[in-house]
Fold Vigilin.
Amino acid sequence: YNLVFSSESCTGCRGWHTRTPCKRGISTMSSVAVLTQESFNEHRSGLLPEKAKAAVAGTSGAEDEDSLPTYKDAFPPLPEKPLPEGVQETGNAWTTKIRPLKSSVITQVFHVPLEERKYKDMNQFGEGDQAKVCLDIMHKTGAHLELSMAKDQGLSIMVSGKHDAVMKARKEIVSRLQTQASATVAIPKEHHRFVIGKSGEKLQELELKTATKIQIPRPEDPSNLIKISGTKEGLEKAKHEILLISAEQDKRAVERMNIEKVYHPFITGAYNKVVGELMQETGARINVPPPSVNKTEIVITGEKEQVALAIAKIKKIYEEKKKNATTIAVEVKKSQHKYVIGPKGNTLQEILDRTGVSVEIPPLDSSSETVILRGEPDRLGQALTEVYAKANSYTVSSVSAPSWLHRFIIGKKGQNLAKITQQMPKVHIEFTEGEDKITLEGPTKDVQIVQGQIEAIVTDLISRMDYTEISVDPKFHRHLIGKGGANINRIKELHKVSVRIPPDNEKSNLIRIEGDPQGVQEAKKELLELASRMENERTKDMIIEQRFHRAIIGQKGEKVKEIRDKFPEVIINFPDPAQKSDIVQLRGPRTEVEKCTKFMQKMVAEMVENSFSVSVPIFKQFHKNIIGKGGANIKKIREETNTKIDLPAENSNSEMIIITGKKANCEAAKNRILAIQKELANITEVEVSIPSKLHNSLIGSKGRFVRSIMEECGGVHIHFPTEGSGIDAVTIRGTAEEVEKAKKQLLSLAEEKQIKSHTVELRAKPEYHKFLIGKGGGNIRKVRDSTGARIIFPTADDKDQELITVIGTEEAVAEAQKELEALIKSLDNVVEDFMIVDPKHHRFFVARRGQVLRDIADEYGGVIVSFPRTATQSDKVTLKGAKDCVEAAKKRMLEMIEDLDAQVTMECVIPQKFHRSIMGPKGSRIQQITKDHNVQIKFPDRDDQQADAPVQENGEANGEVKEPADPLVPKKCDVIVLSGRKERCEAAVEALKALVPVSVAVEVPFELHRYIIGQKGSGIRKMMDEFEVNIQVPAHELQSDIISITGLASHLDRAKEGLLERVKELQAEQEDRALRSFKLTITVEPKYHPKIIGRKGAIITQIRNQHEVNIQFPEKNDENQDQITITGYEQNAVAARNAIQAIVDELEEMISEDITLDSKVHARIIGARGKGIRKIMDEFKVDVRFPQSGAADPNLVTVTGRPEHVDEAIDHLLNLEEEYMADVVENEAKMAYMKPSGSTASSMEEPRGPSKGFVVREAPWATGNEKAPDMSSSEEFPSFGAPVTNARSSPWGPKRF
């Protein structure tokens, strides 16, 4: 249902709002009850006095015959004339004078009746799922929603916004807040596309208009049923619209009849029975607009004969009713109209079904209270009786109660109110915020009972409750609340009061305290003391570098929690990391803030001290030795020096190891790491004194100069002191020879810098650099030696790859510059030359995609070497490039040709089984020999003996006897072929033979083999990787002690020592295992086992960990249920046994006593999830057992423990029982007010005599033999929505269905 707000209409508000009364006026449609300001008070107060009396008189028996009302008094005669013109509703003068303003923003109100509400939890209005759904709708549609609760517990939703947004919100409200019904409508398949419309526009419009979901079957689906889901009213509208669309498109006859809306109920009949019968009889489709659609047109479709027949029948009904039906107008209070209408209009249908009379209710936006009854004259009396009976079936009353007591009456989560509403579900109880009264609405008798119960609760609460208000500056409110409400919750629990602190947006300084009078005063005193203390607080800002904030807070706030626990009265606020602020704010009492400041300053000082960092350059090849086996070395250094040590990643080129911690600890760790490097290699370290003012010039831009010296001197490490330290000592670390070389260069460079330093930059193409440097640095060394200048080429990491820097004296730099420029100029002078190369050697140069030619180009300034095509058989080779580069390349190629001409082929016989070992991982070893000796090595193909061996029978193959192979002739698969110069091939053969693995046998006890192999072979793999050998363990079935180690001779000794060392370790572990397997048993009665185990195994776990033993309790099916087995070292097992025995001795001293505690207080003593009883057991060191459900004595509680502890615990439990029983008695007393008294209940249960019915004097049935109608009969006076029993004769006249 929708109610449209417009700027010129204002007739009041139907419901009430949860916070403030509605200031808007509304103009509504027919489905929502709307009160004018004049009738609002009347709506509140219920029935008019005289009608209330009449209702009571009509439903209660009377002893005195004279006191009975006459039939005319109870049911006044109907007027004989039609409704006078004066009763007609007058139009609104305002609407004729003022044109409505059109606005882009519209407001509509949608009403969801109680029975159609999806969320019916009365105690969570404004919160819970319903509120979340509304927020989601607002976000999704952009419309603004306001909810209010109506007196009939329906929901009114006001939606404001653009027209499209309101329509979308309406659809969402119907689908998400209203229970959904569904229906189907069948129209011809060919009409479906007209319902969908162009691009689905018609369907969308229809869904928005009717607030339903319409599902049309797909074209391939043969079904012609359209499914509609939504509210009942929406279903009717949608069905009507779809049938109209179908009727318009139907090729059969379509007729439209305009019949006054007031006669539609007679055509449709009660529950659509008449129209259904008409459609069945005629075969035509009759579409009557539903009551909510203000249309007079009835559409009939079908075959012409069927349509004509249907029209005739409808006309007959219409004319008959128009001729015979008369109307009467009666006044029924506007507030009672909804009871006449009934849920979903069922009451109107009931009256129409019973009496054949149509009841016309004025629209809700009308102030008229006139109800018109239309029908046969002889049926109007019965219909009027039913209308008044329904209208007067409910009453409205109120109970005076201060508004601050309302929430106590409602109770926590509505518990108190729920008890009343469960007993009297038909009574609606309304609490209006800010008003000192409670409104009740419902059946008269039920309302009276509920009113008595609530009045009793109010009287009780007023006698024992009080409230007060205190004024506290709003800036202190959140401190009074505390973190997570800790402070305020503590005060509430301690004093058993309720404290309301206004939210920040209210800007109010009033805090309200409600509860027990004494508790209210105590809470007030404590809150005022807290506020006073806060006024004396001070705030201090500490400057702490942001990099330390995370460390102070700790992981998951653990460290800052410790500080807060130490200084609970101090609030510590850290800035948001995004703010990049160093200010940490402390707030609290002056002395506590000062103490906390000193503590945090000390903590920060320690962090600063521990954040010292130093970088140590260590040769990359020694990093793994620094780490040690399984990280043992680095872990030991970290623990002993208490430092953090970070190594660069394996794939990083960095050699720097970073140490962080206290300065002294960092230096100690640095020395230990350097000592490991020194021990591993012949590393020496010298210090050179160079004036600190020259350090920057020696290091160069981004370290270029010092890096070039380090690279030239074999990768030595040169360490300059920190800039600005004033220290002159420069440290050089590396092998003795390279260190000396680097020292000379540094001193020479420093001397040059001191005399006169001069720098020049040159540019040359990167491809020229290798040629300028020359093979092994020969070219550039000549320039350095002849001029004395230092020449630095860019590294691969430098951005400018063309820049060459020359450093030295002015004369030396000028001379070097001249030479280099001449070289570069000659390189830029491109020439083309030729040379003769025998075609048999061409393949060598162009093989492997021209790798040899690419190497020549890289080495000699990008020279391009072109060989003739294979088909030409030419021996002329072209070289193109810089003149010097071409000459050098030509010379190098001639050397290669000479090597090829002098090349010999040599064979090296090594058994094939060793070939893989010789090659090494990914052929690395063979590649190294090829590179070192400049030879080519070719391994033979593998020989598969099984595949090559011919099939033999009786020593013959193919009828011929095969001669045995000559043992002196090597197998083809064992021959490795080498090619190159003779001397180089001989050296390579020796290198290959040195790689042939040899084997050694080591005796290892068989039982240790599986430990050496390790889990899934991890142990033996680790040893093979570490010693670079192959270790072969004999098969298990051989039971052999011999393990074979195969590898290079140089590796065998180390591998053998490692294996024997592992054997010693395993034997030691075996001995230790034997000692650890000592077992002893202790006899302990099974009843003590749970106590020894402890809660969640806490006690037994502690004993296991403390004594390092395994303790095994007997299984359920074991014979010896009293035997506990302890396994471990003998002395540890004995100690664990003694610990268990001590527990048993203590348990044997314990006693058990039974006490009687009323079962009503058991749950209270146990507490939520057993917290209460656990606290008691921990405090008194006893065990308390409560009876299980169904026990013989439900009040029997057993307390077990030491005698003195048991007595104390029993006293405490009895005190708790006394305290809790007082609450139980009090609650039972309250319940007595909420339930009917025993006498009333018993009287209600007494068997009653036969009902006298509804008794009046001079009634029409008094003259006949019929008895008066029975008020207790559900047939005579049915409830709302109750099924109707079988029809029988009645004094009210025959029923019409």
Remarks:
- Confidence is low (pLDDT under 50) at residues 1-63, 81-99, 946-962, 1235-1251.
